[in-house]
Amino acid sequence: MRDTSQPGATCPAHAPKDHPAIPAQKVGILLANLGTPDGTDYWSMRRYLGEFLSDKRVIDYPAWKWQPLLQLIILSKRPFTSGAAYRTIWNTEADESPLMTITKAQTAAIRETLTDQYGDRVMVEFCMRYGNPSTRSKVREMVAAGCTKIVFFPLYPQYAGATSATANDQFFRALMQEKWQPTARIVDPYFEHPAYIDALAQSVERRYADLETRPDILVCSYHGVPKRYLMEGDPYHCQCQKTTRLLKERLGWADTEITTTFQSQFGPEDWLRPYTVDEVARLAREDGKKNIAVIAPAFSADCIETLEEINEEIRESFEEAGGARFTYVPCLNDDPAHIAALSTVIRENLGGWLD
Ligand SMILES: C=CC1=C(C)c2cc3[nH]c(cc4nc(cc5[nH]c(cc1n2)c(C)c5CCC(=O)O)C(CCC(=O)O)=C4C)c(C)c3C=C
Ligand SMILES: [Fe+2]
Ligand SMILES: [Fe+2]
């Protein structure tokens, strides 16, 4: 009997001329990040923010209440203010946002690492939850290229409904469109993975080694979510606290040398506290911490929230409160230790698939 599982083989039940050749079977590694606008103009920003802020996993108000407010008020103003903020950090050479540039670099580096080990049996791509390239288009591309198995990897170290879960939802929706659905695995949050903690610690040590005077405290600023989400069971807050503790332990520091804060609150609800923007001012004014460093462990890549919010707005709040030295520790981006950590997490999720 002919073995039809071989690449290029045809099934004996069909005349060979009618039968498409079976492509080589591959494992797809699909990295996922949040998404970013295609441009900084009003309509690009409106499209991006409209899709993002209409997601029930991000803002869970009933549509009849939220959509009129979103469409008529928020989306008539925010595309201008956010567009202006994006213009201050835009990668003008490539005409794309830093999040896009960095995600491309991370994907290329992980692809190189994994193809060195597995050859063309793996296919590594990235997709975005909002905007381009869409999750659907990348799942389609992987299936068409012969991926019968996919490892889906949301690039958020800490799980949040507003990020990891909605990325997974979109992946499941994409799978639902496939006639011959690949087998799928979802990578767990990696907030406590030793390789991730080690990459964070190395980045702090490297940054500190460049400084004339050691900062009084390292502020770990995580993206916030409404406090209600925590009360309803979202593990994000606890995972952030644990990342900070493990980082502190890995660095061998005292409790007083590191702290956890939350940034980017949006709308009228109470969000996770303390708010970074207030806490850095309080540290300068009340605790006499005039020399601080800030790191953003929830972001796998620098983006508007780090380059503009932390390095511009939050820095300004600290300096206005009397702070003297503000050091931003960049995200892990395509740092080799980060690429090695992410590749390790992927390998752990390939168990049995490429043996
Ligand atoms: C309105 C509610 C929001 C929640 C909840 C939220 C959670 C959340 N977001 C990230 C990571 C990123 N957010 C980014 C941008 C961004 N986030 C919100 C709102 C919420 N985020 C808005 C409106 C925006 C757009 C920018 C702006 O208008 O202020 C980005 C950056 C994208 C980029 O292009 O650079 C990231 C990354 C996490 C990790 C998180 C919860 C854990
Ligand atoms: Fe956000
Ligand atoms: Fe907690």
TrEMBL record:
<dbReference type="InterPro" id="IPR033659">
    <property type="entry name" value="Ferrochelatase_N"/>
</dbReference>
<keyword id="KW-0456">Lyase</keyword>
<dbReference type="GO" id="GO:0005737">
    <property type="term" value="C:cytoplasm"/>
</dbReference>
<dbReference type="GO" id="GO:0046872">
    <property type="term" value="F:metal ion binding"/>
</dbReference>
<keyword id="KW-0963">Cytoplasm</keyword>
<protein>
    <recommendedName>
        <fullName>Ferrochelatase</fullName>
        <ecNumber>4.98.1.1</ecNumber>
    </recommendedName>
</protein>
<keyword id="KW-0408">Iron</keyword>
<keyword id="KW-0350">Heme biosynthesis</keyword>
<dbReference type="InterPro" id="IPR001015">
    <property type="entry name" value="Ferrochelatase"/>
</dbReference>
<feature type="region of interest" description="Disordered">
    <location>
        <begin position="1"/>
        <end position="20"/>
    </location>
</feature>
<feature type="binding site">
    <location>
        <position position="223"/>
    </location>
    <ligand>
        <name>Fe(2+)</name>
    </ligand>
</feature>
<dbReference type="Pfam" id="PF00762">
    <property type="entry name" value="Ferrochelatase"/>
</dbReference>
<comment type="similarity">
    <text>Belongs to the ferrochelatase family.</text>
</comment>
<dbReference type="InterPro" id="IPR033644">
    <property type="entry name" value="Ferrochelatase_C"/>
</dbReference>
<keyword id="KW-0479">Metal-binding</keyword>
<comment type="pathway">
    <text>Porphyrin-containing compound metabolism; protoheme biosynthesis; protoheme from protoporphyrin-IX: step 1/1.</text>
</comment>
<dbReference type="GO" id="GO:0004325">
    <property type="term" value="F:ferrochelatase activity"/>
</dbReference>
<feature type="binding site">
    <location>
        <position position="305"/>
    </location>
    <ligand>
        <name>Fe(2+)</name>
    </ligand>
</feature>
<keyword id="KW-0627">Porphyrin biosynthesis</keyword>
<dbReference type="GO" id="GO:0006783">
    <property type="term" value="P:heme biosynthetic process"/>
</dbReference>
<comment type="function">
    <text>Catalyzes the ferrous insertion into protoporphyrin IX.</text>
</comment>
